[in-house]
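Please produce the structure of this protein holding flavin-adenine dinucleotide.
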Amino acid sequence: MTRDLNNHYDVAVIGGGAAGLSGALMLARARRSVIVVDAGAPRNAPAAGVHGLLARDGMTPVELLERGRAEVREYGGRLVTGMVTTVTRADDGFAVETSDAQTLHARRLLVTTGLVDELPDIPGLRARWGVDVLHCPYCHGWEVRDRAIGVLATGPLSVHQALLFRQWSSDVTYFTHTMAPPDDEDAEQLAARGITVIDGEVAALEIVDDRLTGVQMRDGTVKPLAAVAVSPRMVARADFLAELGLRPAEHPAGQYIPCDATGRTEAPGVWVAGNVTDLAAQVGGAAAAGASAAAHINADLVAEETRRAVAARRDPFSTQAEARVCELVLGDRRHGLETTP
Ligand SMILES: Cc1cc2nc3c(=O)[nH]c(=O)nc-3n(C[C@H](O)[C@H](O)[C@H](O)COP(=O)(O)OP(=O)(O)OC[C@H]3O[C@@H](n4cnc5c(N)ncnc54)[C@H](O)[C@@H]3O)c2cc1C
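Below is the modeled complex.
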């Protein structure tokens, strides 16, 4: 049996990370009825702090989102926990269903579900992800500056990643791991920047006292390191959008949901923001994209409401006029009903 969340909203935000909460804040402040459905697993959860975020540098990911949720609630936005599994078109928008059989309806969708980092299959690596197994020098480079950093070649951007990490440390080693050795041009660049290349597969991580101390090669040799960088394959979390005809597009680093500069997708009424569409977005960029998409959603709703109002004004006895009256009455009721749980 499904439990109807008993509400029709202007906008359902699916995913309550930086992008989703930022979008919800804008919409709630625009006096839109908005609900955020969030599964509670932001991508940066393993990290100790959010870095490179102006005025909030180093704040824990948990605290950042707690503050964001409080701000959304402050303006009457509703937040529920749940994993959205199905989205279908309904009369005047969308029906959204979660894995625990909650349902809701919304006129527009803002999808901000982020991405999955597919990590290399090396024993012990997943447990160190976000601690001393890293991917982004802007997130963690400062914390491992001047330390011995190993870059495991796991994707087409690995040479670029090694050259980037060289900005933070002069002790960078490039492991070919499961990729082909660098071509002549890449080898020359790595050599010119003093980056050692080790040809061979990394078999395991060396961990001592809850700290990474090195990597063990397939031939048993150990290379001491303080941090390892990998390039995960980054895959948008949005299977449920297939029902609406939205499928991920390929990117050299993974898969993303395409959209225009405002976050609008090819599916009418559906916007996306954050890592689900921009694999490289950091927290600040994801939040900004969420806010921008929200403003465009509000403008879209305003345009629709204006069209209906004009039709009703021209012909007060039309069905458009009836719809407009219902909309006004429902809208008033909604704003009375939608208290934060
Ligand atoms: C280890 C690590 C460290 C990082 N450190 C930094 C840093 O220091 N600074 C920085 O700026 N960036 C950092 N990042 C990048 C940062 O994580 C992203 O920029 C940010 O999380 C993107 O926000 P988002 O809202 O798009 O996605 P997320 O933060 O991933 O939020 C998506 C939310 O949607 C939810 N969700 C997913 N699917 C569903 C569904 N079907 N139904 C309902 N909810 C769903 C998820 O549970 C999650 O809560 C780091 C990333 C990693 C992996």
